[in-house]
Each structure stands twice: as C-alpha cells, then as structure tokens.
Amino acid sequence: MKEGFRQSMAWLHTWSGLLVGWVLFMVFATGTSAYFRDEISHWMKPELHTAHAASQATPAQAAGQAVRFLEREATGSTRWNIGLPSDREPDVRVTWTRPQPPGTPRQRPLAVQLDPATGERLAAPRATRGGDFFYRMHFDLHYMPALWARWIVGFCAMFMLVAIVSGIVTHRRIFSDFFTFRPRKGQRSWLDAHNATAVLALPYHLMITYTGLVTLMFMYMPWGAQTVYQGDQKTFFAEAFPNAAGSAPQKAAGRPAALVPLGPLVEQAQARWQGAAASRVVVTFPRDANAAVTVYRDAQSSLSSNQASVVFNGTTGQLLETRGEAVPAASETRGVFVGLHMGHFAGPVLRWLFFLSGLAGCVMVATGLLMWAVKERQKYAKALAKGGRIGFGLRLVDGLNLGAIAGLPLAMASFFWANRLIPVTTADRPAAEIAAFFTVWGAATVAGIAWPARRMWQVQLALGGLLFAAVPVLNPLTGGAGLITAGAAGHWSLVGFDATCLLLGAALLASAWWLGRRKPAARAGTAPRSAQAARPAQPAAPAPHPHPAGEPGLSPARHTLAAAAAEGSSP
Amino acid sequence: MSAVHLTLALSSCVAAFSALGLAMDRHYEDSYGRGKAPSSGLRRALRLVGTGGLLLSLWACLAAAGTAQGWVFWFGVMTLSALSVVLVLSYAPGRVTRVLQGGVVLAVVCAGWVVVG
User: Fold this and answer.
1) A194 in reach of chain B (CB within 8 A)
2) Radius of gyration over alpha carbons of chain A, in Å?
C-alpha cells in the first residue's frame, strides 16, 4: 500500500476521532459545564437564592463568625474546614469531621452553609450533587470504579491528542481556509464547521487535552516516581505536594487550650500575599494544645494549582510555616498545567471565554462524528436508491451520534428539571436526580439506535431545546429566584444560569427547526462541484441540495477529507 | 480586566481579523463582487491593520491581566473574535467593511482612553 503521509494522517484522524468521539463529546460537555460548577450548584439549591448575592463580610470577619458557630456545634471534632466567602460563592461553607470510635468506617464530614456576617445557618438546602455531578462525571464517569473511569477517560484523551495532531497535518489549508464557512453546501459545510471550530479554538483544544492528561499523569505514568522512590508513593506525594502533608502536629495533645482568634491570622496571611484573598481556613485539633490553623490563598491570584498557604500555631498564633511560595520548577510547571485545565484562576470574563471555547470543542467533536456518517452514507447512495439498506456500522454510528449529540443535552436539561421536580423529602435524593439523568440519556440512546432517522434527531433536539428554554420559567415556579428577581437583587450567577439555559435551548430548537426545514425533494440536487469551482463568489446563492446528517440517501458531493484537502491545495 | 481594556482587546481583534479576511481574494470577492480583487497597496494596508490590531489586542490583554493571565486572555479573545468574523463573512459578507471600520474606531477610542486616562 503506497499512501502519502497526509493520507495516512487523514485515516488516523478519522478513525481515532470516531473511536472515542462519543465519550469525548460527553467529556467536553460536562467539562465545559464544570467551569460554572459553583454557579450550577447554587442554582440547584433554590432555598439559598434569597441569601445575599454578595458577601456582607470580609474573609477575616467571616472566619471569626464561623468559629463561633463551630465552637458551638462541632464540639469534639478534630478538623474544621471553613470555606471563606468569595465573588463566586458569597456564603461561608463549613465542614467538620465527627468524632468516631476507632475501627468504625470513615464517615463523611458534616457540611453547613453560613451567613458570613452573622455566622448563623442559612436555610438547609435540598440534597443534591449540583454541579459537582458533571464535574465528577467529566473524569470519573458514573456507576463504575473511579480508577477504571480515569483510565477510560485518559485513553480517550490520548486519542483526542492524536486526533488533534493528525487533524492539523491533514488540514493543509489552515491559513487559506482560516475564515471559511460555506453554509448550505452539504458535506462541505460540515467540514468547514469542523475546521472552523477546531482551528479557531486550536490553542484551547491543545491546551485542554494536554493539560487534562497532566492532571492524572502520576496515575497514567507512575514509573519515574516509582523508580526514584522505590514504590514509596506516600513520601513522593508528600515531597511533590508539600501542601498536602505538612509539619503541623499530627496528633492531639489531649490538653485543652483556647483557640486564637482567626480573623487576625487571615489578615496576616493576606498581607503576606500582597493582599490576595484567603479562600479557606483549616483548623486541626481545635481547642487542643496541639491546634494548628492553615490559611489557604485564593486560586485567582495565580495560574498554578499549587495553592499557597500559611500555617499558624492554633494556641499562640505564632507563624509555623509558609508553603507554596518557592515551589520547585518541575512542580510549578505541573501546577500551571493543572491550573490552566481547571481554570480556577479565571475571573468572570475569562471564565466565559473558556466556556465558549469549550462549546466550540463540543461542536468540533459533534461535527466530526456527523461528518463520518455523512461520508459513509454516500457509499450507500446507489444501494439506497434501489431500495437497499445501509450497513450495520453506519446504523450503529448514526444511533450513537443521536444518543450522544442530541441525547446528552436532553439528559442534562432533564437533570435540572429533576432537581426541581423530585420532592425534597425523597430518600437519597441526589441519587434520584442522577438516575433521572441516566434514564433519559439511556432512553434517548436506545431510541436513537432503534430509529436513527432525521425525525428522531428533530424530536430529541426539540425536546432538549424545550426543556432548556423553559428552565427560566421552571426556576421561579419551583422556589428559585427567576431572571427578574435575581437581576433586581444583582444575583448575576442565577441570571447567568437562566440566560445560558435559554440560549442553549434556543440553539437546540433552531437546529431542530433547521433539520425540518428542508424537503426530501431537494435531494435531487446539483452535480458536485470541485472545491475550486464552488469557491468564488456565490455568497448568497441558495444551494439546492442541503442535507444534514441523518437523511437517507444524501449528498452527491464526493469529496473525502483527504481529497478535499488535496484538491483545494492546487493553486 | 477592566471594561475599557476588554473592549479594546475585542474591538481591535475583530477589526484585525476582518482586515485579514478582506485581504484574501475569496472573502474580498464575497464582499465586493465576483472578479474584484484588492489592489496590492490595499492588500498590504489590510494586512498591516490586521497585524497591528492583533498586537494591540495582545497589549491590551497583557496590560490589563498581567503576563501570565494576559496570554490566556488573548487566546480566548482571538477565538471569540475569529468565530464572530467567520459568521459575518459567511452570512453578511457585505458588512465586513462596516465591521472593520467600526472595530477600528472603537479600538482607537478605547486606546486613547487607556493612554490618556
């Protein structure tokens, strides 16, 4: 077989992309939503919508108030964790471990949300996983051990990297097609859309795929550390991530002692960081002689995920240790990669830019998957014209495309609806919400495989669109603060959630309408044009042969990816 | 990122990509009619505006968000601007020149604001 380098790359791109495309679409969609993980969680707890939109207290004041609550409610606990208020999270979130007899299984720490100004409990929100569900699913999937899931996602991410690099090689007209999108030209349009969303957000795609692999690099490639540390993982992690371990006392002294006021310690730490805010305070062995207070710096002040912290003696207030200020270069490199992936540093504008790039990634994966089906279908054009059938592979791909691309948004919207419609008193409510998500997704996929037709695309896209678009109506009807109420109160995270759902819903409905617009009669279409002939000056010419994926017996256009690239490159 | 810096970064980037698009035969034809091509002087000027606009946008990002975040910002701004320009070039090719002009004016005003204020 004598094939050119570019042809082999086109082959590699096609098959590496198709093999893992459906998982990648899910990973992109859930990961994109995770940029607004806190905001989604907040929306999913309508009981908290009436709380203040912005914190009414400084981090130092809030820490002081939280301690008063914990001294009252968390007696006997060995570890308090105080999440301080920020722009994104105006409440104080305290968690504490419960005292438990040795030998019993570890219990989850208790968690309560407090008003930062008074230190009193906010209304108890409903039980939900909130945005954490999508965040976890992004790399842990669900209903399976996290370890397997991470191997699966890592495998797919590696293929994604292969697909990106081979895609760049295959696409030889990156610059001359930089701004090109030719609508209403069948397969050509799918290719253009795939190229535009891939090339124009390429820095993001490369960054997010590579750094995603880096986040779990010690799992995927443990050999270096294993060799140097001779299998002693614990020491390795303690040395690589000094934040995790630490020199604070590891045991209670057993002698009671008063805890120093936390406010001044928070202020001292913030002064050390040139005014960067503190985000979290951890108190170990509170009210014991061995108490220690660790203040963590807010993630917004640095790209790196290596979070700086300061450790104080909990009874004298004496500074014991500073961490994360002089991090070794290798660790900082990894820290910046991981930090870039998570985007914790991003303020609102940058967060939206990340979100948009993530959406571009979803479109890129979706158009890539659809294009495979559109091209494959052409091979059956003659057979179909004679009343034949399409092959098993194409049918399967069509079905999976439907389940992934149309079914996932439908399931995500259903998750938000389930959050509001499942009674608050339901036992194990978070699991019920998640079950609703997977039931809808599973049903959509089964329906897609059973009947992979254009009508099914329309039904699922329209359903998902309706559910999303109606979220702003559902929200105020089920106890949340709606667009107007939240807008008046300056509660922008809630406004943003409702508005984004509305826009996503509109986009899905528009796609459903767009699919229904064309008549099958248009299929007779015109003869294929070469890339050159099709190119010049027909901006508004109504193309007579529109045909998105899913239509039986499509497009006469004959370009394959490689052929189109080769053709286009002639002068 | 202040609102002025963000507007400057976005407007100069949109203007830059519009200019770079117009400097290409295909998009110039879409915009001005079949067979029309920009003169070599115009083409050079458009490319100059394009390069200058991208650099101005980078400067705005770095000045507003610092070196580390500034670069991340710039890539995000470029992605958003380029996707918008693609939509204009595909669905309203006749308006590209208007977008270019508007972008330049807005960028100059914002740049003046940043430098003076």
Assistant:
1) no
2) 27
